[in-house]
Design a protein that fits this description.
- A ten-stranded mixed sheet has the order 5-4-1-8-9-10-11-12-13-14, sandwiched between helices. Strands 3-2-6-7 form a four-stranded mixed sheet.
- It is built from eleven helices and 14 strands.
- The protein is globular.
- Mean pLDDT is 89; it is low at 331-335.
- The chain is α/β, with parallel strands linked by helices.
- It has helices spanning 39-50, 66-77, 120-127, 146-150, 154-169, 188-199, 209-216, 221-230, 270-283, 288-302, 312-326; strands at residues 13-17, 21-28, 31-37, 55-62, 85-87, 95-100, 106-111, 141-145, 173-177, 204-205, 235-238, 245-249, 252-256, 333-334.
Length: 335
């Protein structure tokens, strides 16, 4: 293992915990296109596409309704393991609709208050015997987000953190993206408390500048990275929109410029795709600079298409074309 490597296994198992939703995105006047998405699910899809050798599993809950059946089938078609998904007998997935303006920026409407994914921790607790390991102990890497935490009640959050601590004691690593959504929390203070707790058990974190200003009052990227590293996070990957990507790892800062995309269609899931591409590279043994560049390439590809999940053939073709034309020309800076 080199100083820039976190994983040595050749067939890593990555477990992504959180909510998967029914997505509606506008196709044309009066019509919407239906698909499936959600921050951790988007990350799972792009991680698997970038690293097919990785076993990628979703940890969540769905219902028995037709949307739930189709959702699990969509995961299977993406190569994602559904063996850690439990079924709620009375609830179904949440739903959201995307509204995109002329510049590609989006707004959302949600219908998720009674979603099955809001009870996935309780469902798993009911299936476990006293000596049986939790599903989190069966992974090399666990990924979760602030939305994963926000949709759970406080009792489930506390139990999830107990499971995360057990998994880390067994050598599992944790990656966390705060992904702060104010409407999902009772208050800013509540969100800040649980976000800080998540950082303190994370090995890799993906803080965003705007959310840290709202949650903690942090001033700038360097302020955020220093404080998050001070909470014990070994690898801090700062996503800052169209500004350059900064990674703080082993007390060394690496800067990766972002090449602007001329025509942005839809920014939905760009951050999730970046994270998926980054984690895929790290799980594949690549260093933080290569990982950040891969994440940036994935995000730049996604925003050229509508919706959270770009159809696989179009995604692969566009990503390869982008790498051929831009990767070799990207300047590198460090320090």
């Amino acid at each position: 293992m080199t100083a820039d490597t976190l994983f040595t296994t050749t067939t890593p198992h990555c477990l992504l915990a959180g909510e998967v939703m029914v997505e509606l995105s506008r196709a044309e006047a009066g019509l919407f296109r239906q698909s499936f998405a959600g921050d951790v699910y988007n990350t799972a899809v792009y991680l698997k596409r970038c690293l097919p050798a990785c076993e990628v599993s979703m940890l969540t809950a769905v219902g028995r309704d037709p949307f739930s059946v189709a959702m699990k089938q969509a995961m299977v078609e993406e190569g994602i393991n559904t063996g850690f998904i439990l079924t709620h007998s009375e609830k179904s997935p949440g739903l959201y609709a995307i509204h995109t303006d002329a510049s590609g920026e989006r707004s959302f409407q949600y219908w998720r208050n009674d979603a099955a994914a809001r009870e996935w921790v309780t469902l798993w607790q009911q299936t476990l015997t006293g000596s049986e390991p939790t599903p989190l102990q069966q992974a090399d890497l666990i990924y979760l987000s602030g939305i994963t935490l926000a949709v759970l009640d406080e009792t489930q959050r506390a139990l999830l953190f107990d499971w995360l601590h057990q998994a880390r004691e067994n050598g599992t690593r944790v990656a966390f993206d705060p992904n702060y959504r104010p409407q999902l929390w009772a208050s800013v203070d509540e969100a800040a408390v649980w976000t800080r707790r998540a950082y303190r058990i994370a090995d890799i974190a993906f803080p965003g500048m705007d959310e840290h200003k709202r949650l903690f009052g942090h001033k700038d990227c360097f302020d955020v990275m220093d404080i998050v590293a001070g909470w014990g996070v070994k690898e801090v990957v700062a996503k800052n929109g169209t500004d350059q990507i900064r990674v703080l790892f082993n007390e060394t800062m690496v800067n990766i410029p972002v090449i602007p995309v001329a025509h942005v269609v839809d920014t939905t899931s760009a951050g999730d795709g970046f994270t998926g591409g980054y984690l895929a590279a790290r799980l594949d043994g690549k260093g933080v600079r290569q990982a950040a560049q891969q994440g940036a390439d994935v995000a730049s590809t996604i925003i050229r298409f509508p919706g959270a999940i770009v159809p696989e053939p179009a995604f692969t073709e566009a990503l390869n074309r982008l790498r051929d034309t831009e990767t070799t020309a990207r300047p590198e800076t460090a320090g």
